[in-house]
Design goal:
The chain is 25% helix and 25% strand. It is an alpha+beta fold. Among the domains are: 275 residues, Alkaline Phosphatase, subunit A; 134 residues, Nuclear Transport Factor 2, Chain: A (Roll). The strands form eight sheets. It has a seven-stranded mixed β-sheet, sandwiched between helices. Helix 4 crosses helix 5 and helix 5 runs parallel beside helix 11.
């Protein structure tokens, strides 16, 4: 077999006798001029979208051991699949109810807005009641919720009990045959939170609050592409957000990227704190540390069936934070009208599901402004199932940031606007976009004046290789800066990345993926070249990976999964193959390949599509699959017979239409 790989005006001739045996000979490239012309054309193509890049022309990171190219967000091969979407209201009906906090009584009030009624209607025509939504008791509180009876009311403004967190409202106008329903989430006064403020905020005069806003499945390039108005706000001259362009994911989907950020643990270490009995209660989530040092805490996430700590998991037995929205997000899907919108059921009652999350976070910020708080909002529904769906929420996100600015939140809070990974399947997937989520950091003006050294460091770090463990260390650094951790007490290192560090300290320019726990499969630092797929060597390589998948299913979970999932899937086709160019990080004996391939399984009409990174040692012949294997197409239907972490994306169920093959 003979492959020709062009790099730096050289042809690399690689002969394969069998896996592990190589004879590499370099010769001068006789196409030097044409390759140089092609590179110049590429530079011209990138020119229009590089105005925000601080590093070497055309690169997000350009260092000795890491060179990450700037992906063209508007590449024609992606844009031909991209459809710009316009925000659509979920209902044409008026929103008749709302809640406000009364600062005198320290209670919320429920209002019926008579001004929204038609001229032939009055409030007396409506019969209204509200239900309190509460967290369920018992062994699986995250799995359900409980409600009170529906309490009738006949006044346009009523006072709610101070203990109520969430309500749903239902009104019926029998004369006009109309119904109305809505849900309201509140931030009631909590004695334990107020006592925490009295203990810490009065002693420590620094209120360095932290707020994280995350969007699932969104690459940096796709944020620029699908949410240009939001991106313009982030890059605006008067904003000066820090664009962490070398932010590289460390795992496949949401959990393996948020666990390092929130705990400093990888998924293997997570097994020491997670259990089916206690869920994630015993995991060292960063909000516990903030609470310990006097902060109020909030965590809110939409799409409860697929949320970060509940998808194929137990969630939390104890309420994890002071203000936890999950009972409400579950209840509104049952209590309100849910309509199919685009590819995901996001219209619940009068709003998109993600808007409930944003509004809850905004109410939290308004209520606790001037105190110390830590918040995490995570949004899934408008981005998870299609790389262009997020364009519909562009103006809503812009409006949200403008609200934060207008009410003074950006004057007192460090804000992290981030994602976990890019699109992992479909037309929006490519190597770099999947691995390079976005991370923007906002520092208040007073903070930048007081900590000019931090500003200098984070400015440099915008174009250095970083990962979620670094964000974890940054969050701990913020607590240290608050003065609430005693002098002499060191910030505990991220357990599973000993060389990761706070982004407030300059990151080494010599960083490599391997030293900060980014597996080669996820690493974007090393260039690679496409190679011809029509060769027996790559077929052997593909068969090796497919057999690895079969063995994984056969042995997973004490061999219980193999009773439901096939262990005889076969290689269908090598779709693409790449040779990763040599790197200082690896021995010259190690040859690295990436292959995209499809499989076939009895009883399944659609092929599975996968992507794997394989290392071959030319001396020993050893073949190793590095890191995870990516699934490039959706697998919910293929794997409907199991709900098992780490196996679902590889499973092809025996059962099809109720019969076993």
């Amino acid at each position: 077999m003979l492959l020709y790989i062009c790099q730096n005006s050289l042809i690399i001739s690689i002969k394969f006798n069998k896996i592990g045996e190589f004879d590499i000979e370099k010769t001068r490239d006789r196409f030097q001029e044409s390759i140089l012309n092609a590179k110049n054309e590429i530079k011209k193509h990138f020119k229009n979208i590089l105005r925000h890049v601080k590093g070497q022309f055309g690169y997000l990171v350009y260092e000795n051991n890491c060179k990450i190219p700037n992906v063209d967000a508007f590449d024609p091969t992606i844009m031909r699949h991209f459809e710009k979407r316009v925000y659509q209201n979920c209902t044409k009906n008026e929103t008749l109810t709302f809640v406000t906090f009364n600062s005198n009584s320290l209670k919320y009030e429920l209002h019926f807005d008579k001004s929204k009624l038609n001229s032939n209607e009055s409030f007396k025509d409506w019969d209204c009641c509200y239900k309190e939504i509460m967290r369920q008791d018992g062994s699986n509180p995250d799995g359900s919720y409980k409600t009170s009876n529906c309490n009738p009311y006949n006044e346009t403004t009523i006072e709610l009990d101070s203990s109520i967190d969430f309500i749903t409202v239902k009104c019926i106008n029998s004369q006009n045959n109309k119904t109305y329903s809505n849900g309201h989430a509140m931030i009631p006064e909590k004695v334990e939170v107020r006592n925490r403020f009295n203990t810490y905020d009065k002693v420590y005069n620094k209120h360095i609050s932290v707020f994280l806003i995350g969007i699932d499945s969104m690459s940096r390039a796709n944020l620029i592409r699908s949410m240009p108005n939001t991106a313009e706000f982030l890059y605006g001259q008067d904003q000066q957000w820090f664009d962490m362009q070398g932010y590289n994911k460390v795992g496949d989907n949401t959990l393996p990227n948020l666990m390092p950020l929130l705990t400093g643990y990888n998924l293997t270490s997570r097994e020491s704190c997670y259990s089916t009995e206690n869920g994630s209660d015993n995991c060292p989530l960063i909000w516990k540390l903030f609470e310990k040092y006097g902060y109020a805490t909030i965590y809110a996430e939409d799409w409860p069936a697929a949320s970060t700590f509940n998808y194929l998991q137990r969630g939390f037995i104890k309420k994890p934070v002071d203000f936890y929205l999950r009972p409400f997000t579950k209840a509104i899907r049952d209590e309100l009208i849910v309509e199919k919108h685009r590819m995901q059921s996001t219209c619940i009652g009068s709003k998109h599901e993600s808007e409930y999350i944003l509004e809850y976070g905004l109410e939290f910020l308004k209520r606790l402004k001037g105190n110390s708080y830590f918040g995490l909002l995570w949004l899934n529904t408008f981005s998870h199932d299609g790389f262009d769906l997020s364009s519909e929420m562009d103006m809503k996100m812009l409006e949200y940031f403008e609200k934060l600015k207008n009410i003074g939140i950006m004057d007192e809070s460090i804000i992290f606007f981030l994602s976990d990974h890019g699109m992992r399947w479909g037309s929006g997937n490519n190597f770099y976009e999947e691995r390079l989520p976005f991370l923007y950091i906002w520092l208040p003006s007073w903070f930048k004046k007081e900590y000019s050294d931090i500003v200098k460091s984070i400015t440099i770090n915008q174009n250095r290789l970083i990962n979620p463990y670094d964000v974890h260390m940054t969050l701990k650094h913020i607590i240290k800066l608050s003065g609430r951790i005693e002098d002499g007490i060191k910030i505990e290192q991220a357990k599973d990345c000993l060389k990761c560090q706070s982004l407030f300290i300059e990151v080494s320019s010599n960083r490599t993926c391997s030293e900060i726990e980014i597996e080669d499969h996820w690493c974007t630092c090393d260039p690679f070249e496409m190679i011809d797929t029509n060769d027996e060597f790559l077929t052997k390589l593909g068969n090796f990976v497919v057999q690895y998948i079969n063995n994984l299913i056969a042995k997973h979970d004490n061999s219980t999964v193999k009773e439901l999932c096939r262990t005889d899937i076969k290689l269908n086709k090598i779709n693409e193959a790449f040779y990763i160019l040599p790197s200082n990080t690896y021995s010259s004996d190690v040859k690295r390949f990436r292959i995209a391939f499809s499989t076939e399984a009895v009883g399944h009409k659609d092929n599975g599509k996968f992507f794997a990174t394989v290392h071959i040692n030319s001396k020993t012949g050893d073949v190793d699959i590095k890191g995870d294997i990516s699934r490039l197409n959706k697998y919910a239907d293929d794997a409907s017979c199991i709900d098992v972490q780490n196996a679902k994306k590889f499973c092809f169920c025996y059962i099809n239409n109720g019969t076993k093959h």
